[in-house]
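User: BPI fold-containing family A member 1, Oryctolagus cuniculus:
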Amino acid sequence: MSRFGGLIAFWGLLAHTVVRLEGLPLLQGQTLPLSLNKAPSLPLTQVQSLPVSPVNTLPLGQALPLPALPLPVSPALPIDPTNLAGSLTNALSSGLLTGDLGGTLENLPLLDILKTGGASGGLLGNLLGTVTSLIPGLNNIIDIKITNPRLLELGLVQSPAGHRLYVTIPLGLILRVNTPLVGNLLKLAVQLNITAELIVAKDSQGRSHLVIGDCTHPPGSLEISLLNGMAPLPLQSFLNNLTGLLTRVLPGLIQGQVCPLVNGVLSHLDVSLVHDIAHMLINKLEFVAQL
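Assistant: Predicted structure for BPI fold-containing family A member 1:
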């Protein structure tokens, strides 16, 4: 037991010596003996701080500036043929309506042309001869008014070669044949298609424009129908003759007023729309149904 007690006393003394040595300052080049599985430690007052590079501080809430990066460039979007054709027909319809197409049709000098359209009292005077013999009191006193002018949905097709467009402009109106004694003698519904050819033309500065090439009414596109039932037998011959007369006179009269309006609308189209359409036509690219 004395040998074992001596060994305990030796280890106690050794541990006490090591603790005291750790509290002493170190000389240059001096090291402490290491105890088993224990790294040397220094008092906080003896630890020398390492030099630190100065760091710029930012106010609270301010982010560090990021390096400038080049903005991504979006590629040019391809032209959508459907939108292009729809944009053109919408622009033409809107332009014709705001250009007083309705007022132009209502003010067509139809009655004056009918009265002075031929010899022996004019075309209408010749037609009235049959009616006045059956209905006393007419005696060339008659009035024809154009009412309810309508612009229907425009059609658009492309030429087989791809460098021209054809716009179909369907029009509707009502013809009222009135007399002071009889009143509303006849009420006729009229529909007529005007077809305008659109081509690309360049001005002196090389800018492309859409202009009218040809503007006409297709044969057989005029439709005239009686709205107020069957015409009385005495008026049936007059109605047939009047319908034939209107078929010869009315299309050219309407065409002469509508085509200049279309040309005016083309000159005020959006520049980007004209540019895109001209690009498609010049390069003969299909963007609407072809003939």
